[in-house]
Amino acid sequence: MSADAPITQDVMTIPRKLPEGPVNLVGLTRDKLREALLAIGTPEKQAKMRVNQIWQWIYQWGVRDFAEMTNLAKAYRAQLAEHFVIEVPEMVSKQVSADGTRKYLVRIAGGHEVEVVYIPETDRGTLCVSSQVGCTLTCSFCHTGTQKLVRNLTAGEIVGQIMMARDDLGEWPEPGVGTGEAGPRLLSNIVLMGMGEPLYNFDNVRDAMKIAMDGEGISLSRRRITLSTSGVVPEIAKCAEEIGCLLAVSFHATTDEVRDKLVPINKRWNIEALLDALRAYPKLSNSERITFEYVMLKDVNDSDEDARRLVKLIKGIPAKINLIPFNEWPGSPYQRSDWDRIEKFADIIYKAGYASPIRTPRGEDIMAACGQLKSATERARKSRAQIAAETGISQQ
Ligand code: SAH
Ligand code: SF4
Protein backbone atom coordinates (compact mmCIF):
# COMPACT_ATOMS: atom_id res chain seq x y z
CA MET A 1 0.00 0.00 0.00
CA SER A 2 1.67 3.23 -1.01
CA ALA A 3 1.19 6.59 0.66
CA ASP A 4 -0.34 7.75 -2.63
CA ALA A 5 -3.34 5.49 -2.13
CA PRO A 6 -6.52 7.48 -2.69
CA ILE A 7 -8.51 8.67 0.32
CA THR A 8 -11.69 7.43 -1.25
CA GLN A 9 -11.98 4.38 -3.45
CA ASP A 10 -13.66 3.94 -6.77
CA VAL A 11 -17.03 3.34 -5.21
CA MET A 12 -20.43 3.31 -6.69
CA THR A 13 -22.77 5.46 -4.69
CA ILE A 14 -26.23 4.00 -4.65
CA PRO A 15 -28.97 6.59 -4.66
CA ARG A 16 -31.67 5.72 -2.18
CA LYS A 17 -34.83 4.81 -3.95
CA LEU A 18 -37.62 6.42 -1.98
CA PRO A 19 -40.04 3.72 -1.03
CA GLU A 20 -43.43 4.31 -2.50
CA GLY A 21 -46.51 4.04 -0.36
CA PRO A 22 -47.14 4.94 3.26
CA VAL A 23 -44.57 6.89 5.28
CA ASN A 24 -42.52 4.99 7.84
CA LEU A 25 -42.69 6.75 11.21
CA VAL A 26 -39.49 5.11 12.52
CA GLY A 27 -36.63 7.59 12.51
CA LEU A 28 -38.72 10.75 12.13
CA THR A 29 -37.59 13.53 14.45
CA ARG A 30 -40.24 15.01 16.74
CA ASP A 31 -40.61 17.94 14.35
CA LYS A 32 -40.99 15.74 11.30
CA LEU A 33 -43.47 13.48 13.03
CA ARG A 34 -45.46 16.54 14.11
CA GLU A 35 -45.57 17.76 10.50
CA ALA A 36 -46.69 14.34 9.31
CA LEU A 37 -49.48 14.24 11.89
CA LEU A 38 -50.64 17.75 11.03
CA ALA A 39 -50.70 16.78 7.37
CA ILE A 40 -53.29 14.08 8.03
CA GLY A 41 -55.48 16.52 9.92
CA THR A 42 -54.39 16.11 13.55
CA PRO A 43 -55.53 19.27 15.35
CA GLU A 44 -52.64 21.64 16.02
CA LYS A 45 -53.43 21.76 19.75
CA GLN A 46 -53.10 17.99 20.09
CA ALA A 47 -50.05 17.46 17.90
CA LYS A 48 -47.41 17.67 20.62
CA MET A 49 -49.18 15.18 22.84
CA ARG A 50 -49.79 12.78 19.94
CA VAL A 51 -46.09 12.88 19.05
CA ASN A 52 -45.20 11.91 22.62
CA GLN A 53 -47.76 9.14 22.73
CA ILE A 54 -46.76 7.65 19.40
CA TRP A 55 -43.06 7.84 20.23
CA GLN A 56 -43.65 5.97 23.46
CA TRP A 57 -45.58 3.22 21.69
CA ILE A 58 -42.92 2.83 19.04
CA TYR A 59 -39.70 3.17 21.03
CA GLN A 60 -40.60 2.21 24.58
CA TRP A 61 -43.13 -0.54 24.00
CA GLY A 62 -41.99 -1.81 20.62
CA VAL A 63 -45.48 -1.66 19.14
CA ARG A 64 -45.71 -2.02 15.34
CA ASP A 65 -49.48 -1.97 14.94
CA PHE A 66 -51.47 1.24 15.38
CA ALA A 67 -54.42 -0.81 16.64
CA GLU A 68 -52.46 -1.50 19.85
CA MET A 69 -52.08 2.18 20.71
CA THR A 70 -54.86 2.04 23.22
CA ASN A 71 -54.60 5.58 24.55
CA LEU A 72 -55.56 6.94 21.11
CA ALA A 73 -59.14 7.08 19.87
CA LYS A 74 -60.09 4.17 17.62
CA ALA A 75 -60.92 6.38 14.66
CA TYR A 76 -57.56 8.14 14.98
CA ARG A 77 -55.72 4.80 15.10
CA ALA A 78 -57.46 3.79 11.88
CA GLN A 79 -56.49 7.08 10.31
CA LEU A 80 -52.85 6.58 11.28
CA ALA A 81 -52.87 3.07 9.82
CA GLU A 82 -54.18 4.44 6.55
CA HIS A 83 -51.26 6.79 6.07
CA PHE A 84 -48.33 5.40 8.01
CA VAL A 85 -46.35 2.26 8.80
CA ILE A 86 -43.91 1.35 11.57
CA GLU A 87 -41.13 -0.64 9.96
CA VAL A 88 -37.63 -1.75 10.92
CA PRO A 89 -34.98 -3.37 8.70
CA GLU A 90 -35.65 -7.01 7.99
CA MET A 91 -33.37 -9.57 9.60
CA VAL A 92 -32.04 -11.85 6.87
CA SER A 93 -29.81 -14.02 9.00
CA LYS A 94 -28.41 -14.36 12.47
CA GLN A 95 -25.22 -16.09 13.56
CA VAL A 96 -24.33 -16.73 17.17
CA SER A 97 -20.66 -17.04 18.11
CA ALA A 98 -19.27 -19.50 20.64
CA ASP A 99 -18.80 -16.48 22.96
CA GLY A 100 -22.44 -15.36 22.68
CA THR A 101 -21.85 -12.53 20.20
CA ARG A 102 -24.69 -12.27 17.70
CA LYS A 103 -24.18 -11.05 14.17
CA TYR A 104 -27.22 -10.03 12.17
CA LEU A 105 -27.46 -9.36 8.50
CA VAL A 106 -30.30 -6.94 7.85
CA ARG A 107 -31.89 -5.88 4.60
CA ILE A 108 -32.75 -2.27 3.97
CA ALA A 109 -34.77 -0.56 1.23
CA GLY A 110 -33.39 -1.27 -2.22
CA GLY A 111 -32.32 -4.78 -1.18
CA HIS A 112 -28.94 -3.73 0.24
CA GLU A 113 -27.60 -5.29 3.37
CA VAL A 114 -25.69 -4.20 6.45
CA GLU A 115 -24.35 -6.02 9.47
CA VAL A 116 -25.21 -5.37 13.10
CA VAL A 117 -23.42 -7.01 16.03
CA TYR A 118 -24.62 -7.58 19.59
CA ILE A 119 -21.91 -8.16 22.19
CA PRO A 120 -23.04 -9.40 25.62
CA GLU A 121 -20.77 -8.68 28.57
CA THR A 122 -21.28 -9.23 32.29
CA ASP A 123 -22.34 -5.68 33.12
CA ARG A 124 -23.67 -4.48 29.78
CA GLY A 125 -24.79 -5.42 26.30
CA THR A 126 -23.41 -3.42 23.42
CA LEU A 127 -24.92 -3.10 19.97
CA CYS A 128 -22.51 -2.23 17.19
CA VAL A 129 -24.56 -0.30 14.65
CA SER A 130 -23.83 0.48 10.99
CA SER A 131 -24.23 3.96 9.50
CA GLN A 132 -23.59 3.23 5.81
CA VAL A 133 -23.67 0.35 3.37
CA GLY A 134 -19.91 -0.03 2.86
CA CYS A 135 -17.62 2.95 3.36
CA THR A 136 -16.16 5.51 0.96
CA LEU A 137 -12.87 5.53 2.85
CA THR A 138 -10.02 3.16 2.23
CA CYS A 139 -8.34 2.25 5.51
CA SER A 140 -5.96 -0.47 4.38
CA PHE A 141 -6.62 -2.84 7.31
CA CYS A 142 -10.42 -2.69 7.17
CA HIS A 143 -12.65 -5.16 5.36
CA THR A 144 -15.57 -2.74 5.05
CA GLY A 145 -13.27 -0.29 3.25
CA THR A 146 -12.90 -2.75 0.37
CA GLN A 147 -16.62 -2.83 -0.33
CA LYS A 148 -17.54 -1.14 -3.55
CA LEU A 149 -21.11 -0.16 -2.82
CA VAL A 150 -21.94 2.81 -0.67
CA ARG A 151 -25.20 4.25 0.48
CA ASN A 152 -26.02 6.33 3.54
CA LEU A 153 -28.53 4.74 5.86
CA THR A 154 -31.60 6.76 6.79
CA ALA A 155 -32.23 7.72 10.41
CA GLY A 156 -35.00 5.11 10.44
CA GLU A 157 -32.61 2.41 9.24
CA ILE A 158 -30.12 3.34 11.95
CA VAL A 159 -32.55 3.46 14.87
CA GLY A 160 -34.32 0.47 13.27
CA GLN A 161 -31.20 -1.65 13.87
CA ILE A 162 -31.59 -1.05 17.59
CA MET A 163 -35.29 -1.97 17.45
CA MET A 164 -34.56 -5.10 15.42
CA ALA A 165 -32.02 -6.21 18.03
CA ARG A 166 -34.50 -5.58 20.86
CA ASP A 167 -36.99 -7.73 18.93
CA ASP A 168 -34.47 -10.54 18.73
CA LEU A 169 -33.45 -10.20 22.38
CA GLY A 170 -37.12 -10.19 23.40
CA GLU A 171 -36.45 -7.01 25.33
CA TRP A 172 -39.59 -4.95 24.89
CA PRO A 173 -41.34 -4.46 28.21
CA GLU A 174 -44.73 -6.02 28.69
CA PRO A 175 -47.51 -3.44 28.72
CA GLY A 176 -48.52 -2.74 32.27
CA VAL A 177 -45.36 -4.26 33.73
CA GLY A 178 -42.94 -1.37 33.33
CA THR A 179 -39.92 -0.35 31.36
CA GLY A 180 -37.17 -2.55 32.67
CA GLU A 181 -36.14 -0.72 35.85
CA ALA A 182 -35.54 -4.14 37.37
CA GLY A 183 -32.02 -4.65 36.13
CA PRO A 184 -29.52 -3.70 33.47
CA ARG A 185 -30.90 -3.82 30.00
CA LEU A 186 -29.73 -6.54 27.66
CA LEU A 187 -29.09 -3.79 25.15
CA SER A 188 -27.58 -1.04 27.28
CA ASN A 189 -24.92 0.55 25.07
CA ILE A 190 -24.54 1.57 21.46
CA VAL A 191 -21.35 1.96 19.49
CA LEU A 192 -21.35 3.41 16.00
CA MET A 193 -18.55 1.10 14.97
CA GLY A 194 -20.23 -1.08 12.37
CA MET A 195 -20.03 -0.44 8.66
CA GLY A 196 -19.40 3.08 7.45
CA GLU A 197 -18.06 6.43 8.57
CA PRO A 198 -20.79 7.96 10.78
CA LEU A 199 -19.59 11.53 10.35
CA TYR A 200 -20.06 11.23 6.59
CA ASN A 201 -23.75 10.59 7.26
CA PHE A 202 -24.05 13.21 9.95
CA ASP A 203 -27.69 14.31 9.82
CA ASN A 204 -29.15 10.82 9.78
CA VAL A 205 -26.82 9.59 12.54
CA ARG A 206 -27.70 12.65 14.64
CA ASP A 207 -31.45 12.19 14.20
CA ALA A 208 -31.21 8.48 15.03
CA MET A 209 -29.07 9.06 18.13
CA LYS A 210 -31.44 11.80 19.35
CA ILE A 211 -34.19 9.18 19.33
CA ALA A 212 -31.91 6.69 21.08
CA MET A 213 -31.18 9.25 23.83
CA ASP A 214 -34.66 10.71 24.25
CA GLY A 215 -36.57 9.81 27.42
CA GLU A 216 -39.61 9.06 25.29
CA GLY A 217 -37.46 7.32 22.70
CA ILE A 218 -35.12 4.37 23.33
CA SER A 219 -34.06 6.20 26.47
CA LEU A 220 -30.34 5.44 26.69
CA SER A 221 -28.03 7.92 28.38
CA ARG A 222 -25.74 9.82 26.01
CA ARG A 223 -22.86 8.39 28.03
CA ARG A 224 -23.84 4.94 26.78
CA ILE A 225 -23.45 5.91 23.13
CA THR A 226 -20.07 6.08 21.43
CA LEU A 227 -19.49 7.33 17.92
CA SER A 228 -16.28 6.19 16.25
CA THR A 229 -14.72 8.27 13.50
CA SER A 230 -11.66 7.86 11.35
CA GLY A 231 -11.05 11.60 11.80
CA VAL A 232 -13.45 13.75 9.78
CA VAL A 233 -12.12 16.86 11.49
CA PRO A 234 -14.72 19.50 10.49
CA GLU A 235 -17.55 17.32 11.78
CA ILE A 236 -16.05 16.59 15.19
CA ALA A 237 -17.13 19.85 16.86
CA LYS A 238 -20.57 19.44 15.30
CA CYS A 239 -20.80 15.97 16.82
CA ALA A 240 -20.10 17.47 20.26
CA GLU A 241 -22.62 20.27 19.83
CA GLU A 242 -25.46 18.45 18.09
CA ILE A 243 -25.22 14.90 19.44
CA GLY A 244 -23.12 15.11 22.61
CA CYS A 245 -22.36 11.40 22.82
CA LEU A 246 -18.96 9.95 23.64
CA LEU A 247 -16.33 9.96 20.94
CA ALA A 248 -13.85 7.33 19.81
CA VAL A 249 -11.27 8.06 17.19
CA SER A 250 -9.47 5.57 14.98
CA PHE A 251 -5.97 6.80 15.66
CA HIS A 252 -3.87 3.75 14.79
CA ALA A 253 -0.50 5.45 14.13
CA THR A 254 1.86 7.97 15.69
CA THR A 255 3.45 9.49 12.60
CA ASP A 256 1.75 11.05 9.60
CA GLU A 257 3.79 8.80 7.35
CA VAL A 258 2.29 5.63 8.80
CA ARG A 259 -1.18 7.08 9.40
CA ASP A 260 -1.34 8.21 5.75
CA LYS A 261 -1.06 4.55 4.79
CA LEU A 262 -3.38 3.07 7.39
CA VAL A 263 -6.08 5.75 7.54
CA PRO A 264 -5.74 7.70 4.28
CA ILE A 265 -8.11 10.46 5.42
CA ASN A 266 -5.00 11.56 7.35
CA LYS A 267 -3.75 13.06 4.09
CA ARG A 268 -6.66 15.47 4.25
CA TRP A 269 -6.57 16.13 8.02
CA ASN A 270 -3.31 15.10 9.60
CA ILE A 271 -2.52 14.08 13.17
CA GLU A 272 -2.00 17.66 14.32
CA ALA A 273 -5.31 18.88 12.88
CA LEU A 274 -7.09 15.87 14.38
CA LEU A 275 -5.60 16.42 17.84
CA ASP A 276 -6.60 20.08 17.76
CA ALA A 277 -10.21 19.09 17.12
CA LEU A 278 -10.08 16.44 19.85
CA ARG A 279 -8.77 18.87 22.45
CA ALA A 280 -11.97 20.88 22.18
CA TYR A 281 -14.35 17.88 22.22
CA PRO A 282 -14.81 17.09 25.92
CA LYS A 283 -15.49 20.74 26.74
CA LEU A 284 -17.98 21.16 23.92
CA SER A 285 -19.91 17.97 24.61
CA ASN A 286 -19.56 17.94 28.37
CA SER A 287 -18.39 14.35 27.98
CA GLU A 288 -15.65 12.49 29.73
CA ARG A 289 -12.70 10.90 28.04
CA ILE A 290 -12.08 10.34 24.37
CA THR A 291 -11.29 6.77 23.37
CA PHE A 292 -8.26 6.43 21.13
CA GLU A 293 -8.63 3.23 19.14
CA TYR A 294 -5.36 1.68 18.14
CA VAL A 295 -5.26 -1.46 16.00
CA MET A 296 -2.17 -3.55 16.70
CA LEU A 297 -0.43 -4.45 13.45
CA LYS A 298 2.70 -6.52 13.57
CA ASP A 299 5.85 -4.51 12.77
CA VAL A 300 3.80 -1.60 11.45
CA ASN A 301 2.71 0.49 14.44
CA ASP A 302 3.47 -1.63 17.50
CA SER A 303 6.97 -0.63 18.68
CA ASP A 304 7.92 0.81 22.08
CA GLU A 305 8.72 4.10 20.31
CA ASP A 306 5.17 4.15 18.95
CA ALA A 307 3.78 3.71 22.45
CA ARG A 308 5.92 6.55 23.79
CA ARG A 309 5.06 8.83 20.89
CA LEU A 310 1.38 8.09 21.38
CA VAL A 311 1.53 9.12 25.02
CA LYS A 312 3.32 12.35 24.07
CA LEU A 313 0.87 13.21 21.32
CA ILE A 314 -2.27 12.89 23.42
CA LYS A 315 -0.86 14.77 26.40
CA GLY A 316 -3.48 17.09 27.86
CA ILE A 317 -6.46 15.27 26.31
CA PRO A 318 -8.65 13.29 28.74
CA ALA A 319 -8.24 9.92 27.05
CA LYS A 320 -8.29 6.19 27.27
CA ILE A 321 -6.56 4.03 24.75
CA ASN A 322 -8.28 0.98 23.41
CA LEU A 323 -5.83 -1.48 21.91
CA ILE A 324 -7.48 -3.64 19.28
CA PRO A 325 -5.64 -6.80 18.25
CA PHE A 326 -5.94 -6.79 14.46
CA ASN A 327 -8.80 -8.95 13.23
CA GLU A 328 -7.76 -10.77 10.12
CA TRP A 329 -10.05 -11.21 7.15
CA PRO A 330 -9.50 -13.26 4.00
CA GLY A 331 -6.72 -11.58 2.02
CA SER A 332 -5.92 -8.95 4.66
CA PRO A 333 -2.48 -7.38 4.11
CA TYR A 334 -1.42 -7.30 7.79
CA GLN A 335 -0.87 -9.60 10.73
CA ARG A 336 -1.91 -9.25 14.33
CA SER A 337 0.91 -8.19 16.67
CA ASP A 338 2.20 -10.91 18.97
CA TRP A 339 0.51 -11.03 22.35
CA ASP A 340 3.62 -10.14 24.38
CA ARG A 341 4.21 -7.14 22.09
CA ILE A 342 0.65 -5.92 22.71
CA GLU A 343 1.14 -6.32 26.45
CA LYS A 344 4.43 -4.43 26.37
CA PHE A 345 2.79 -1.62 24.40
CA ALA A 346 -0.11 -1.52 26.86
CA ASP A 347 2.27 -1.40 29.78
CA ILE A 348 4.09 1.70 28.51
CA ILE A 349 0.78 3.49 28.10
CA TYR A 350 -0.48 2.34 31.48
CA LYS A 351 2.66 3.55 33.22
CA ALA A 352 2.17 6.95 31.61
CA GLY A 353 -1.14 7.16 33.47
CA TYR A 354 -3.69 6.08 30.87
CA ALA A 355 -6.17 3.25 30.97
CA SER A 356 -5.09 0.92 28.18
CA PRO A 357 -7.48 -2.01 27.92
CA ILE A 358 -6.75 -4.59 25.28
CA ARG A 359 -10.03 -5.27 23.53
CA THR A 360 -10.79 -8.97 23.63
CA PRO A 361 -11.66 -10.02 20.11
CA ARG A 362 -15.32 -11.04 20.13
CA GLY A 363 -17.19 -13.07 17.58
CA GLU A 364 -14.16 -13.76 15.42
CA ASP A 365 -15.45 -17.20 14.50
CA ILE A 366 -18.44 -15.61 12.75
CA MET A 367 -16.46 -12.70 11.27
CA ALA A 368 -18.25 -10.27 13.56
CA ALA A 369 -15.21 -8.57 15.07
CA CYS A 370 -14.22 -4.96 14.50
CA GLY A 371 -13.29 -4.24 10.93
CA GLN A 372 -14.50 -7.59 9.60
CA LEU A 373 -17.95 -6.48 8.60
CA LYS A 374 -18.83 -6.54 4.98
CA SER A 375 -22.21 -7.27 3.55
CA ALA A 376 -23.11 -10.49 1.86
CA THR A 377 -24.51 -8.66 -1.13
CA GLU A 378 -21.03 -7.41 -1.80
CA ARG A 379 -19.38 -10.76 -1.20
CA ALA A 380 -21.37 -12.07 -4.09
CA ARG A 381 -19.28 -9.67 -6.21
CA LYS A 382 -21.81 -8.41 -8.64
CA SER A 383 -20.53 -6.66 -11.70
CA ARG A 384 -20.78 -2.90 -11.91
CA ALA A 385 -23.15 -3.28 -14.83
CA GLN A 386 -25.40 -5.56 -12.82
CA ILE A 387 -25.47 -3.10 -9.92
CA ALA A 388 -26.14 -0.18 -12.23
CA ALA A 389 -29.02 -2.01 -13.79
CA GLU A 390 -30.51 -2.89 -10.40
CA THR A 391 -30.27 0.58 -8.93
CA GLY A 392 -31.37 2.31 -12.08
CA ILE A 393 -28.33 4.56 -12.36
CA SER A 394 -26.26 5.04 -15.43
CA GLN A 395 -22.64 3.95 -15.33
CA GLN A 396 -19.98 6.64 -15.49
N1 SAH B 1 -15.60 4.24 10.29
C1 SAH B 1 -15.48 4.39 11.68
C2 SAH B 1 -16.24 3.36 12.48
C3 SAH B 1 -16.24 1.93 12.02
S1 SAH B 1 -14.78 0.98 12.21
C4 SAH B 1 -14.04 4.40 12.08
O1 SAH B 1 -13.18 4.08 11.27
O2 SAH B 1 -13.76 4.79 13.21
C5 SAH B 1 -14.69 0.58 13.95
C6 SAH B 1 -13.24 0.38 14.46
O3 SAH B 1 -12.68 -0.84 13.95
C7 SAH B 1 -12.30 1.48 13.97
O4 SAH B 1 -11.42 1.88 15.00
C8 SAH B 1 -11.51 0.76 12.90
O5 SAH B 1 -10.33 1.40 12.63
C9 SAH B 1 -11.36 -0.61 13.49
N2 SAH B 1 -10.99 -1.64 12.52
C10 SAH B 1 -11.21 -1.66 11.20
N3 SAH B 1 -10.71 -2.80 10.65
C11 SAH B 1 -10.18 -3.52 11.67
C12 SAH B 1 -9.57 -4.81 11.75
N4 SAH B 1 -9.43 -5.58 10.67
N5 SAH B 1 -9.16 -5.23 12.95
C13 SAH B 1 -9.33 -4.48 14.07
N6 SAH B 1 -9.94 -3.28 14.05
C14 SAH B 1 -10.36 -2.79 12.87
FE1 SF4 C 1 -14.36 3.15 6.75
FE2 SF4 C 1 -13.84 3.03 9.40
FE3 SF4 C 1 -13.23 0.95 7.76
FE4 SF4 C 1 -11.84 3.23 7.61
S1 SF4 C 1 -11.93 1.81 9.38
S2 SF4 C 1 -12.62 2.05 5.86
S3 SF4 C 1 -13.41 4.75 8.00
S4 SF4 C 1 -15.29 1.71 8.23
From TrEMBL:
It catalyses: adenosine(2503) in 23S rRNA + 2 reduced [2Fe-2S]-[ferredoxin] + 2 S-adenosyl-L-methionine = 2-methyladenosine(2503) in 23S rRNA + 5'-deoxyadenosine + L-methionine + 2 oxidized [2Fe-2S]-[ferredoxin] + S-adenosyl-L-homocysteine; adenosine(37) in tRNA + 2 reduced [2Fe-2S]-[ferredoxin] + 2 S-adenosyl-L-methionine = 2-methyladenosine(37) in tRNA + 5'-deoxyadenosine + L-methionine + 2 oxidized [2Fe-2S]-[ferredoxin] + S-adenosyl-L-homocysteine. The active site is at E115 (proton acceptor), C370 (s-methylcysteine intermediate). S-adenosyl-L-methionine binds at G196, E197, S228, S250, F251, H252, N327. One of its GO terms (biological process) is methylation. Pfam families: Radical_SAM, RlmN_N. Its main location: cytoplasm. It comes from the Bacteria. GO terms for molecular function: methyltransferase activity. Binds 1 [4Fe-4S] cluster. The cluster is coordinated with 3 cysteines and an exchangeable S-adenosyl-L-methionine. Gene3D superfamilies: 1.10.150.530, Aldolase class I (3.20.20.70). It is found in: Cytoplasm. Its cofactor is [4Fe-4S] cluster. [4Fe-4S] cluster binds at C135, C139, C142. Keywords: 4Fe-4S, Cytoplasm, Disulfide bond, Iron, Iron-sulfur, Metal-binding, Methyltransferase, rRNA processing, S-adenosyl-L-methionine, Transferase, tRNA processing. Its EC number is 2.1.1.192. It is an enzyme of class 2 (transferase). Residues 121-365 form the Radical SAM core domain. Belongs to the radical SAM superfamily. RlmN family. Reaction proceeds by a ping-pong mechanism involving intermediate methylation of a conserved cysteine residue. Specifically methylates position 2 of adenine 2503 in 23S rRNA and position 2 of adenine 37 in tRNAs. m2A2503 modification seems to play a crucial role in the proofreading step occurring at the peptidyl transferase center and thus would serve to optimize ribosomal fidelity. This is Dual-specificity RNA methyltransferase RlmN.
